[in-house]
Specification:
- There is one protein chain.
- The chain has 549 residues and is of the alpha/beta class.
- The chain has 2 domains: 250 residues, 3-Layer(aba) Sandwich (Rossmann fold); 238 residues, Phosphofructokinase domain (Rossmann fold), CATH 3.40.50.
- Strand 14 and strand 15 form a beta hairpin.
- The longest helix has 23 residues.
- The protein is globular.
- The structure holds 1,6-di-O-phosphono-beta-D-fructofuranose.
Length: 549
């Protein structure tokens, strides 16, 4: 495999480890735990794995005699920088426990377990992937492990390979499913521990116990770099407004972190839009007003950051999408039989009054996307809706209207961008390389402790890596009951942007200044070699969350 000079150099990087994980460890048992809410209901569903204590690992001078252990690993869901280091951490950890331990990777996500597709991950394979981005070492997939048949099918291959522990690296849903699997195996006395690991660039798997999911750091730094470049271009040419959509299926953590990094003129935060009950027109008017203000000062340029999930947080759009989902589920055939150029009118004439008016006000391309792109459950795939184009077009229309009314005399020319996949497989920052390796090593300690139904946890992340605290959190501790597909289910709470939290409050304190004046910051590319100030800084979100600000 040909490698770039940087790839070759990164291959030699030794992730920094918490002091506690640098030699033999002992387990310190914490208090017994309970779920964040709905304690009775969650306990009833997890009789064998509920209420377990938190665990912390501390260094010990005692000689710890380990036994060989065979471990399986699965990468689940969207890619996130650092996944390969989690696997390298597990590998090194179980080899340190006993040189004859073995690691098996299930291929292309949870489906590999069910379909018995796997490969042994040996030292020569692991070494090629240390500190690299991507999940290509074994591939990833979005199959959900939810059915008892899948669990039993998986158990067959686990037994065949003598695997006694399975590590599932995934987001909130995958870790919820890992907890259900742990409970199931325990309930049937199957000798397989199940350990989870918090992954997602979206940053929405975090809580009191999990300070951040891995991948968020690198992905936001990659987006921060390119947005910074765009801002410098925009400040040089002074003729375009750039509408930039940022990945993050639901929560706006990525958009907020990027805003903190680059100080754009505008950043929309979905959670605020929802809390204020803003309409699409309110969002458009807000942006257009800032364009107009800047234009009045002769500044016909700017940047707007838009979170990917925005559409679903606009209450009126949410209602429209719900009615469209329902209507098309029942009238799909009739709708498809209508000539393409008549489909828009057909929808307009069949929706309820408010939804019909809103649908009619949407640009043709977006209206069409709302009826075309559907997932296997019949829902509109909102992530495919080009919100950046929608807003750019609607702001243009609004400004044209204001011009005709004599309220706007400036110029407006918009360009649109979507940054998502560019950041998901980037070479992990030092933070993610270190954090992921520590998460993997911690997972191996949890395996050695014989526990199941835990998530690997590394805390104190704004301190130097040597001071990070490694341990295990019972996954049921992060759960509550939520309605999903019409049924109450135990799930890990998804973390949305907290409007009372420091990162959002800091942003609100600055945004008017950033809107009117040009306060751009140009973060530049991730640095891998140099001083800690340059290379090892966590996200501003994490710093603000942990500050007393
Ligand atoms: P995970 O939650 O599985 O980590 O994936 C998050 C994400 O990257 C979202 O930001 C994005 O909306 C989605 O995946 C895209 O999914 P896909 O990879 O299937 O296109």
């Amino acid at each position: 495999m040909t490698k770039s000079p940087l790839q070759a150099a990164r291959g030699q990087y030794s992730p920094k480890l918490p002091l506690a994980l640098q030699g033999a460890v002992k387990v310190v048992l914490g208090e017994k735990t309970q779920s964040v809410s709905d304690q009775e209901a969650v306990q009833e569903l997890f009789p064998h794995t509920y209420g377990l204590p938190k665990l912390t690992f501390e260094a010990t001078t005692e000689e710890v005699q380990g036994k060989p252990v065979n471990v399986g690993v699965i990468l689940s869901g969207g890619q996130a920088p650092g996944g390969h280091n989690v696997i390298a951490g597990i590998f090194d950890g179980i080899k340190a426990i006993h040189a004859e331990s073995r690691l098996y990777g299930f291929l292309m996500g949870p489906d590999g377990l069910v379909q018995h597709n796997y490969k042994e991950l040996t030292a020569d394979i692991i070494d090629q992937y240390r500190n690299t981005g991507g999940f290509d070492i074994i591939g990833s997939g979005r199959t959900k492990l939810e059915e008892v048949e899948q669990y039993n099918k998986g158990l067959e291959v686990l037994k065949q390979l003598n695997i006694s522990a399975l590590v599932i690296i995934g987001g909130d849903d995958s870790n919820t499913n890992a907890a259900v699997l742990a409970e199931y195996y325990k309930s049937i006395n199957a000798p397989v521990q199940v350990i989870g690991c918090p992954k997602t660039i979206d940053g929405d798997l975090k809580n009191e116990q999990i300070e951040t999911s891995f991948g968020f750091d690198t992905a936001t730094k990659v987006y921060g770099e390119v947005i910074g470049n765009i801002q410098r271009d925009c400040n040089s040419a002074r003729k375009y407004w750039h509408f930039i959509k940022l990945m993050g299926r639901s929560a706006s953590h990525i958009a907020l972190e990027c805003a903190l990094q680059v100080q754009p003129n505008i950043a929309i935060i979905s959670e605020e839009v929802e809390a204020k009950g803003m309409s699409l027109d309110d969002v458009v008017t807000y942006i257009a007003s800032i364009v107009a203000k800047r234009s009045a000062k002769g500044e016909h340029f700017g940047t707007v950051l838009i979170p990917e999930g925005l559409i679903e947080f606009i209450p009126a759009m949410k209602k429209l999408i719900a009615e469209l989902n329902d209507f098309l589920a029942h009238h799909e055939e009739d709708f498809r039989a209508v000539a393409a150029d008549e489909q828009r009118n057909y929808i307009i004439s069949h929706l309820s009054k408010d939804n019909s008016e809103l649908y009619a006000s949407l640009p043709a391309t977006v209206a069409r996307q709302l009826t075309l792109d559907r997932d296997p459950h019949g829902n509109v795939q909102v992530s495919l809706i080009e919100t950046e184009k929608l807003l750019a077009e609607m702001v243009g229309t609004k400004l044209a209207q204001w011009k005709s009314e004599g309220k706007f005399a400036g110029k407006f020319s918009a360009l649109t961008h979507f940054f998502g996949y560019e950041g998901r497989c980037a070479m992990p920052s030092n933070f993610d390389a270190d954090y992921c390796y520590a998460l993997g090593r911690t997972a191996s300690c949890l395996i050695n402790s014989g526990v199941t139904g835990y998530m690997s946890s590394v805390q104190n992340l704004t301190a130097p890596a040597s001071e990070w605290i490694a341990g295990g959190i019972p996954t049921t501790m992060m759960m509550n009951m939520e309605r999903r597909h019409g049924m109450m289910k135990p799930v890990i709470q998804k973390a949305l942007v907290r409007l009372e939290g420091n990162p959002f409050r800091y942003f609100v304190g600055q945004r008017d200044e950033w809107a009117e004046n040009t306060c751009y910051v140009y973060p530049g590319p991730i640095q891998y070699f140099g001083t800690p100030e340059l290379c090892d800084q966590p996200t501003l979100t994490l710093k603000l969350e942990q500050s007393k600000w």
